[in-house]
Amino acid sequence: MTDLIVFGEDWGAHPSSTMHLIAHLPGDNRILWANSIGLRRPRPTLSDLGRAWRKLLAAFRPKPARAATPAPFPVIQPLVLPMATSRLGRALNRHLLARKVGAAARAAGLHKPVLWISLPSAIDAVGALGESAVVYYAGDDFGALAGVDHAACLAMEVELAARADLVLAASPTIAARFPAAKTHVLPHGVDLDLFSTPAPRPADLPDGKVAGYYGTLASWLDYPLIAATARLLPEWRFIFIGPIGSDVAPTDLALLRAEPNIALLGPRPHAALPGYSRNWSAGLIPFRDNAQIRASNPLKLREYLAAGRPVVATPFPALLPYAEHIAVETTAAGFARALEASLSDTNTTARQSRVAAESWAARAATAASLIAAVVP
User: Fold this and answer.
1) Residue 15 reports pLDDT greater than 90
2) 233 and 330 inside one domain
3) Mean pLDDT across 185-212
Protein backbone atom coordinates (compact mmCIF):
# COMPACT_ATOMS: atom_id res chain seq x y z
CA MET A 1 0.00 0.00 0.00
CA THR A 2 1.16 3.52 -0.85
CA ASP A 3 -0.35 6.69 0.61
CA LEU A 4 -0.52 9.41 -2.04
CA ILE A 5 -1.52 13.06 -2.17
CA VAL A 6 -2.07 13.98 -5.80
CA PHE A 7 -1.94 17.59 -6.98
CA GLY A 8 -3.55 17.35 -10.40
CA GLU A 9 -6.17 18.92 -12.62
CA ASP A 10 -9.75 19.32 -11.44
CA TRP A 11 -10.99 15.78 -10.97
CA GLY A 12 -13.60 14.88 -13.58
CA ALA A 13 -13.19 18.06 -15.64
CA HIS A 14 -11.56 16.05 -18.43
CA PRO A 15 -9.84 12.65 -18.54
CA SER A 16 -6.24 13.74 -17.98
CA SER A 17 -3.27 11.39 -18.01
CA THR A 18 -2.87 11.97 -14.27
CA MET A 19 -6.44 10.79 -13.68
CA HIS A 20 -5.87 7.66 -15.76
CA LEU A 21 -2.59 6.79 -14.05
CA ILE A 22 -3.78 7.32 -10.50
CA ALA A 23 -7.04 5.43 -11.14
CA HIS A 24 -5.06 2.43 -12.42
CA LEU A 25 -2.33 2.24 -9.78
CA PRO A 26 -1.99 -1.36 -8.60
CA GLY A 27 -2.62 -2.26 -4.99
CA ASP A 28 -4.90 -0.97 -2.26
CA ASN A 29 -3.61 2.60 -2.01
CA ARG A 30 -4.91 5.41 0.16
CA ILE A 31 -5.23 8.49 -2.06
CA LEU A 32 -6.20 12.12 -1.56
CA TRP A 33 -6.73 14.21 -4.69
CA ALA A 34 -6.17 17.99 -4.56
CA ASN A 35 -7.83 19.86 -7.41
CA SER A 36 -6.01 22.25 -9.69
CA ILE A 37 -3.80 25.03 -8.40
CA GLY A 38 -3.87 27.44 -11.35
CA LEU A 39 -0.99 28.01 -13.76
CA ARG A 40 -1.58 31.73 -14.27
CA ARG A 41 -2.75 34.77 -12.38
CA PRO A 42 -6.47 35.53 -12.83
CA ARG A 43 -7.49 38.41 -15.07
CA PRO A 44 -10.51 40.72 -14.64
CA THR A 45 -12.67 38.77 -17.10
CA LEU A 46 -16.05 37.13 -16.60
CA SER A 47 -14.52 33.72 -17.27
CA ASP A 48 -11.75 34.14 -14.69
CA LEU A 49 -14.09 35.66 -12.13
CA GLY A 50 -16.49 32.76 -12.61
CA ARG A 51 -13.71 30.21 -12.21
CA ALA A 52 -12.42 31.95 -9.08
CA TRP A 53 -15.92 31.96 -7.61
CA ARG A 54 -16.34 28.23 -8.32
CA LYS A 55 -13.00 27.51 -6.69
CA LEU A 56 -14.00 29.48 -3.59
CA LEU A 57 -17.30 27.64 -3.34
CA ALA A 58 -15.53 24.30 -3.74
CA ALA A 59 -12.96 25.21 -1.06
CA PHE A 60 -15.64 25.93 1.54
CA ARG A 61 -18.28 23.37 0.49
CA PRO A 62 -18.76 20.74 3.23
CA LYS A 63 -18.99 17.99 0.60
CA PRO A 64 -17.40 18.03 -2.86
CA ALA A 65 -19.66 18.64 -5.84
CA ARG A 66 -20.67 15.56 -7.79
CA ALA A 67 -18.27 15.03 -10.69
CA ALA A 68 -19.15 13.53 -14.06
CA THR A 69 -16.67 10.77 -13.18
CA PRO A 70 -17.04 9.96 -9.46
CA ALA A 71 -13.71 9.72 -7.65
CA PRO A 72 -12.96 6.54 -5.66
CA PHE A 73 -11.12 8.63 -3.06
CA PRO A 74 -11.50 12.02 -1.33
CA VAL A 75 -11.21 15.12 -3.53
CA ILE A 76 -10.54 18.56 -2.06
CA GLN A 77 -10.10 22.08 -3.41
CA PRO A 78 -7.02 23.85 -1.94
CA LEU A 79 -7.34 27.60 -1.53
CA VAL A 80 -4.09 29.44 -2.38
CA LEU A 81 -2.84 32.61 -3.99
CA PRO A 82 -2.59 31.80 -7.73
CA MET A 83 0.99 31.71 -9.03
CA ALA A 84 2.44 33.48 -6.00
CA THR A 85 6.13 34.28 -6.53
CA SER A 86 6.92 36.62 -3.61
CA ARG A 87 8.45 35.23 -0.42
CA LEU A 88 5.40 36.32 1.58
CA GLY A 89 2.91 34.88 -0.92
CA ARG A 90 4.65 31.53 -1.04
CA ALA A 91 4.90 31.36 2.74
CA LEU A 92 1.15 31.97 2.94
CA ASN A 93 0.51 29.25 0.38
CA ARG A 94 2.65 26.76 2.33
CA HIS A 95 0.60 27.55 5.43
CA LEU A 96 -2.71 27.21 3.58
CA LEU A 97 -1.70 23.92 1.96
CA ALA A 98 -0.35 22.46 5.19
CA ARG A 99 -3.57 23.34 6.98
CA LYS A 100 -6.20 22.34 4.39
CA VAL A 101 -4.49 19.42 2.66
CA GLY A 102 -2.83 18.20 5.84
CA ALA A 103 -6.16 18.03 7.67
CA ALA A 104 -7.75 16.14 4.78
CA ALA A 105 -4.80 13.72 4.64
CA ARG A 106 -5.09 12.96 8.33
CA ALA A 107 -8.84 12.45 7.99
CA ALA A 108 -8.19 9.98 5.16
CA GLY A 109 -5.69 8.06 7.31
CA LEU A 110 -2.62 8.95 5.24
CA HIS A 111 0.79 8.57 6.88
CA LYS A 112 4.02 9.89 5.35
CA PRO A 113 2.39 10.13 1.93
CA VAL A 114 4.10 10.36 -1.43
CA LEU A 115 3.36 13.69 -3.09
CA TRP A 116 2.45 13.25 -6.76
CA ILE A 117 2.58 16.70 -8.35
CA SER A 118 1.38 17.23 -11.92
CA LEU A 119 1.28 21.04 -11.85
CA PRO A 120 4.40 23.10 -10.96
CA SER A 121 2.15 25.63 -9.22
CA ALA A 122 1.82 23.13 -6.35
CA ILE A 123 5.52 23.53 -5.47
CA ASP A 124 4.75 25.05 -2.07
CA ALA A 125 3.23 21.76 -0.90
CA VAL A 126 6.72 20.21 -0.92
CA GLY A 127 8.01 19.99 2.63
CA ALA A 128 4.70 21.08 4.15
CA LEU A 129 2.90 17.73 4.39
CA GLY A 130 5.33 15.30 6.05
CA GLU A 131 5.82 13.42 2.80
CA SER A 132 8.10 10.42 2.34
CA ALA A 133 8.92 11.24 -1.31
CA VAL A 134 8.04 13.67 -4.08
CA VAL A 135 7.14 12.66 -7.64
CA TYR A 136 6.88 15.27 -10.39
CA TYR A 137 4.75 14.04 -13.28
CA ALA A 138 5.63 16.28 -16.24
CA GLY A 139 2.81 15.66 -18.68
CA ASP A 140 3.07 18.92 -20.65
CA ASP A 141 5.61 21.46 -21.84
CA PHE A 142 4.61 24.31 -19.55
CA GLY A 143 6.93 26.67 -21.41
CA ALA A 144 4.82 26.34 -24.56
CA LEU A 145 1.35 25.54 -23.19
CA ALA A 146 -1.23 28.19 -24.05
CA GLY A 147 -2.88 30.09 -21.19
CA VAL A 148 0.05 29.69 -18.77
CA ASP A 149 2.27 32.26 -17.03
CA HIS A 150 5.30 30.74 -18.72
CA ALA A 151 8.18 32.41 -16.88
CA ALA A 152 6.74 31.88 -13.40
CA CYS A 153 5.61 28.36 -14.21
CA LEU A 154 9.00 27.32 -15.60
CA ALA A 155 10.78 28.74 -12.56
CA MET A 156 8.50 26.69 -10.30
CA GLU A 157 9.12 23.62 -12.46
CA VAL A 158 12.89 23.95 -12.14
CA GLU A 159 12.57 24.13 -8.36
CA LEU A 160 10.11 21.24 -8.27
CA ALA A 161 12.32 19.00 -10.41
CA ALA A 162 15.31 19.78 -8.17
CA ARG A 163 13.38 18.86 -5.02
CA ALA A 164 11.64 15.79 -6.49
CA ASP A 165 12.90 12.29 -5.82
CA LEU A 166 11.49 11.07 -9.14
CA VAL A 167 10.48 12.80 -12.39
CA LEU A 168 8.12 11.05 -14.79
CA ALA A 169 7.98 12.71 -18.22
CA ALA A 170 5.35 12.06 -20.88
CA SER A 171 7.80 12.40 -23.76
CA PRO A 172 11.56 12.30 -24.41
CA THR A 173 11.48 16.01 -25.31
CA ILE A 174 10.12 16.87 -21.87
CA ALA A 175 12.42 14.40 -20.11
CA ALA A 176 15.51 16.03 -21.63
CA ARG A 177 14.93 19.13 -19.49
CA PHE A 178 15.42 17.32 -16.18
CA PRO A 179 18.26 15.52 -14.35
CA ALA A 180 18.75 12.21 -16.17
CA ALA A 181 19.57 10.23 -13.02
CA LYS A 182 16.05 10.60 -11.62
CA THR A 183 13.99 11.10 -14.78
CA HIS A 184 12.07 8.38 -16.62
CA VAL A 185 9.93 8.64 -19.76
CA LEU A 186 6.40 7.41 -19.07
CA PRO A 187 4.37 7.70 -22.29
CA HIS A 188 0.63 7.98 -22.13
CA GLY A 189 -1.49 4.85 -22.18
CA VAL A 190 -4.92 3.96 -23.51
CA ASP A 191 -8.19 2.55 -22.20
CA LEU A 192 -8.15 -0.53 -24.41
CA ASP A 193 -11.50 -1.92 -23.28
CA LEU A 194 -13.30 1.35 -23.95
CA PHE A 195 -11.85 2.10 -27.38
CA SER A 196 -11.47 -1.40 -28.85
CA THR A 197 -15.01 -2.55 -28.06
CA PRO A 198 -17.63 -2.03 -30.81
CA ALA A 199 -19.92 0.91 -30.06
CA PRO A 200 -23.23 2.05 -31.61
CA ARG A 201 -23.01 4.75 -34.27
CA PRO A 202 -24.05 8.11 -32.75
CA ALA A 203 -27.11 9.75 -34.28
CA ASP A 204 -25.15 12.93 -35.14
CA LEU A 205 -22.35 11.09 -36.97
CA PRO A 206 -23.07 11.63 -40.68
CA ASP A 207 -23.45 8.73 -43.08
CA GLY A 208 -20.99 8.15 -45.89
CA LYS A 209 -17.34 9.22 -45.89
CA VAL A 210 -16.48 10.83 -42.56
CA ALA A 211 -13.16 12.15 -41.23
CA GLY A 212 -13.19 12.97 -37.53
CA TYR A 213 -11.23 14.65 -34.77
CA TYR A 214 -11.87 15.02 -31.07
CA GLY A 215 -10.09 17.26 -28.59
CA THR A 216 -9.89 20.95 -27.85
CA LEU A 217 -10.13 23.13 -30.95
CA ALA A 218 -7.15 25.28 -30.08
CA SER A 219 -4.18 27.06 -31.60
CA TRP A 220 -2.24 23.84 -32.16
CA LEU A 221 -4.54 22.69 -35.00
CA ASP A 222 -3.63 23.55 -38.60
CA TYR A 223 -6.86 25.23 -39.71
CA PRO A 224 -5.71 26.23 -43.22
CA LEU A 225 -4.71 22.59 -43.85
CA ILE A 226 -8.07 21.31 -42.60
CA ALA A 227 -10.09 23.77 -44.67
CA ALA A 228 -8.06 23.09 -47.81
CA THR A 229 -8.49 19.33 -47.39
CA ALA A 230 -12.26 19.75 -46.98
CA ARG A 231 -12.39 21.75 -50.21
CA LEU A 232 -10.56 18.99 -52.07
CA LEU A 233 -13.05 16.37 -50.80
CA PRO A 234 -16.52 17.93 -51.05
CA GLU A 235 -18.21 14.51 -50.83
CA TRP A 236 -16.58 13.84 -47.42
CA ARG A 237 -17.88 15.12 -44.09
CA PHE A 238 -15.39 16.46 -41.54
CA ILE A 239 -16.54 16.47 -37.90
CA PHE A 240 -14.80 18.12 -34.96
CA ILE A 241 -15.73 17.17 -31.40
CA GLY A 242 -14.59 19.22 -28.43
CA PRO A 243 -14.59 22.63 -26.76
CA ILE A 244 -13.49 25.71 -28.66
CA GLY A 245 -10.38 27.19 -27.04
CA SER A 246 -10.99 29.67 -24.26
CA ASP A 247 -10.82 33.38 -23.61
CA VAL A 248 -7.23 32.84 -22.45
CA ALA A 249 -6.22 31.33 -25.78
CA PRO A 250 -9.02 32.20 -28.22
CA THR A 251 -9.43 30.20 -31.41
CA ASP A 252 -10.61 31.64 -34.71
CA LEU A 253 -12.65 28.96 -36.47
CA ALA A 254 -13.74 31.14 -39.40
CA LEU A 255 -11.89 28.91 -41.87
CA LEU A 256 -13.76 25.83 -40.67
CA ARG A 257 -17.16 27.50 -40.46
CA ALA A 258 -16.81 28.65 -44.07
CA GLU A 259 -16.72 25.07 -45.41
CA PRO A 260 -20.16 23.44 -45.86
CA ASN A 261 -18.82 19.91 -45.26
CA ILE A 262 -17.22 20.73 -41.88
CA ALA A 263 -19.36 20.32 -38.73
CA LEU A 264 -18.46 21.44 -35.20
CA LEU A 265 -20.34 19.11 -32.86
CA GLY A 266 -19.15 20.54 -29.53
CA PRO A 267 -17.90 18.56 -26.52
CA ARG A 268 -18.91 14.96 -25.81
CA PRO A 269 -18.31 12.83 -22.68
CA HIS A 270 -15.15 10.76 -22.85
CA ALA A 271 -17.14 7.52 -22.67
CA ALA A 272 -19.06 8.56 -25.82
CA LEU A 273 -15.97 9.06 -27.99
CA PRO A 274 -15.58 5.42 -29.16
CA GLY A 275 -18.99 5.68 -30.80
CA TYR A 276 -17.43 8.23 -33.14
CA SER A 277 -13.86 6.90 -33.51
CA ARG A 278 -14.97 3.33 -34.19
CA ASN A 279 -17.57 4.38 -36.79
CA TRP A 280 -16.01 7.22 -38.79
CA SER A 281 -14.01 6.44 -41.92
CA ALA A 282 -10.72 7.86 -40.60
CA GLY A 283 -9.40 9.82 -37.64
CA LEU A 284 -7.52 13.11 -38.03
CA ILE A 285 -4.58 14.56 -36.08
CA PRO A 286 -3.85 17.76 -38.06
CA PHE A 287 -1.38 19.46 -35.71
CA ARG A 288 0.76 22.47 -36.42
CA ASP A 289 4.50 22.18 -35.92
CA ASN A 290 5.31 24.10 -32.74
CA ALA A 291 7.15 23.58 -29.45
CA GLN A 292 4.07 22.38 -27.60
CA ILE A 293 3.27 19.72 -30.20
CA ARG A 294 6.90 18.58 -30.48
CA ALA A 295 6.84 17.88 -26.72
CA SER A 296 3.34 16.41 -26.69
CA ASN A 297 2.17 12.82 -26.33
CA PRO A 298 -1.53 13.14 -27.19
CA LEU A 299 -3.96 10.68 -25.65
CA LYS A 300 -6.00 10.56 -28.85
CA LEU A 301 -3.09 8.98 -30.75
CA ARG A 302 -3.37 5.63 -28.96
CA GLU A 303 -7.13 5.93 -28.61
CA TYR A 304 -7.54 6.28 -32.37
CA LEU A 305 -5.30 3.24 -32.92
CA ALA A 306 -7.19 1.20 -30.32
CA ALA A 307 -10.43 2.04 -32.13
CA GLY A 308 -8.90 0.42 -35.21
CA ARG A 309 -9.91 2.94 -37.87
CA PRO A 310 -7.30 4.50 -40.22
CA VAL A 311 -5.50 7.62 -39.00
CA VAL A 312 -4.16 10.55 -41.04
CA ALA A 313 -1.84 12.99 -39.26
CA THR A 314 0.78 15.65 -39.67
CA PRO A 315 4.26 14.63 -38.43
CA PHE A 316 5.30 15.11 -34.80
CA PRO A 317 7.76 13.15 -32.62
CA ALA A 318 5.22 11.07 -30.66
CA LEU A 319 4.03 9.52 -33.93
CA LEU A 320 7.38 7.92 -34.75
CA PRO A 321 6.88 4.59 -32.91
CA TYR A 322 3.54 4.16 -34.73
CA ALA A 323 4.45 5.53 -38.16
CA GLU A 324 3.78 2.28 -40.04
CA HIS A 325 0.17 2.36 -38.82
CA ILE A 326 -0.54 6.03 -39.62
CA ALA A 327 -0.64 7.99 -42.88
CA VAL A 328 1.66 10.94 -42.20
CA GLU A 329 1.13 13.89 -44.53
CA THR A 330 2.00 17.60 -44.61
CA THR A 331 -0.23 19.00 -47.36
CA ALA A 332 -3.94 19.15 -48.12
CA ALA A 333 -3.36 17.08 -51.28
CA GLY A 334 -1.58 14.46 -49.18
CA PHE A 335 -4.38 14.40 -46.61
CA ALA A 336 -6.97 14.05 -49.38
CA ARG A 337 -5.10 11.12 -50.99
CA ALA A 338 -4.66 9.39 -47.63
CA LEU A 339 -8.33 9.79 -46.73
CA GLU A 340 -9.44 8.32 -50.05
CA ALA A 341 -6.99 5.44 -49.59
CA SER A 342 -8.34 4.80 -46.08
CA LEU A 343 -11.65 3.63 -47.55
CA SER A 344 -9.99 0.39 -48.67
CA ASP A 345 -7.85 -0.03 -45.54
CA THR A 346 -8.34 -3.35 -43.72
CA ASN A 347 -5.57 -3.12 -41.10
CA THR A 348 -7.86 -2.72 -38.08
CA THR A 349 -6.35 -5.62 -36.13
CA ALA A 350 -2.77 -4.47 -36.76
CA ARG A 351 -3.51 -1.01 -35.37
CA GLN A 352 -5.21 -2.39 -32.29
CA SER A 353 -2.42 -4.91 -31.70
CA ARG A 354 0.19 -2.14 -31.84
CA VAL A 355 -1.19 -0.54 -28.66
CA ALA A 356 -2.37 -3.73 -26.93
CA ALA A 357 0.51 -3.60 -24.42
CA GLU A 358 0.12 0.13 -23.71
CA SER A 359 -2.86 0.19 -21.39
CA TRP A 360 -3.13 2.68 -18.56
CA ALA A 361 -2.84 -0.25 -16.15
CA ALA A 362 0.54 -1.15 -17.65
CA ARG A 363 1.73 2.48 -17.47
CA ALA A 364 0.51 2.78 -13.87
CA ALA A 365 2.31 -0.43 -12.90
CA THR A 366 5.55 1.06 -14.25
CA ALA A 367 4.94 4.26 -12.29
CA ALA A 368 4.23 2.29 -9.09
CA SER A 369 7.46 0.36 -9.47
CA LEU A 370 9.49 3.53 -9.95
CA ILE A 371 7.81 5.18 -6.95
CA ALA A 372 8.49 2.17 -4.73
CA ALA A 373 12.18 2.49 -5.55
CA VAL A 374 12.39 6.04 -4.13
CA VAL A 375 10.22 5.65 -1.03
CA PRO A 376 12.42 5.12 2.06
Assistant:
1) no
2) yes
3) 96
